[in-house]
Amino acid sequence: MTLRWPALVVVVSILGAPAAKAPLAAGPTREEALTALADAGDVDSRRRGALALRETGLMADLPRLVAALRDGDSLVRAFAENAMWQVWSRSGDGDIDRLFAIGVEQMNARRGEVAVETFTEIVRRRPEFAEGWNKRATVYYLLGEYQKSLADCDEVMKRNPYHFGALSGYGMIYLQLDQPAKALDYFQRALGVNPNLESIRQTVETLKTLLIQRRKDTI
Question: Whose CA is closest to 6, among 203, 213, 216, 211?
Fold first, then answer.
């Protein structure tokens, strides 16, 4: 029996980050933000630290932000997740960042072929920039080029093993390829990095139920 997989809403995926906001007014330095984020006794301090890192954080700070995804305070968790997306979206090169913004606009305008060209130029010029690969993976997914999208997700994970969006993206692709067991594995790995992905958690439970039913149907 072949099951038709239901449309599954995935909020955080290869499809990308929350919309960028205007930079904050001058605030804590990166070092001050990291110190504040580590203040176990002061939730307001941790909130300020996580919020500030969206502007000042570096890739080297990802382990601390990942830890903050398990904070007892929901705002700290939300600010940490947003900070991770913002850190990922900074290449360290102003020209590349401007080109990246153009590519995101093209993608959002559903100009897929043009966006592929833009992100291809980004990864050619700055191959270490994981988010360039991630956005091209997104566009390939939207164009139905699933094998190319998988290949780009591989490039993302080589450079950024914390990328829960790319892990979710693998899951979405494997659903399209009717490989639910692989999809489930990657969705669970995404939750292992970021346990706050509620839509992914719901998808995991749905897949578990459907896989159980599929096994029963083969008996």
Answer: 203
Residues 6+ away with beta carbon under 8 Å from 48: 27, 28, 33, 36
The full set of domain ranges for the chain reads 30-88, 91-160, 162-219
Q: What residue type is 165 in one-letter code? A: G
Neighbouring CB atoms inside 10 A of 129's CB total 24
Q: Considering only CA atoms, which of 129, 152, 12 is closest in space to residue 82? A: 12
| pLDDT, the chain, mean | 90
The structure tokens 């970021």 sit at 194
CA dihedral 190, 202, 89, 21 (to 10 degrees): -150
Instruction: Give 45's contacts (C-beta < 8 A, 6+ positions apart).
Output: 36, 37, 39
As a whole number of angstroms, the distance between CA 126 and CA 121 comes to 8
- Tens-digit pLDDT profile for residues 112-142: 999 999 999 999 999 999 999 999 999 999 9
CATH entry, 91-160, from 3.40.50.720, 3.90.950.10, 3.30.930.10, 1.25.40.10: 1.25.40.10
Q: Kindly report the CATH class assigned to 30-88.
A: mainly alpha
pLDDT in tens, 21-40: 444 456 899 999 999 999 99
> Rounded CA gap, 177 and 195, in Å?
25
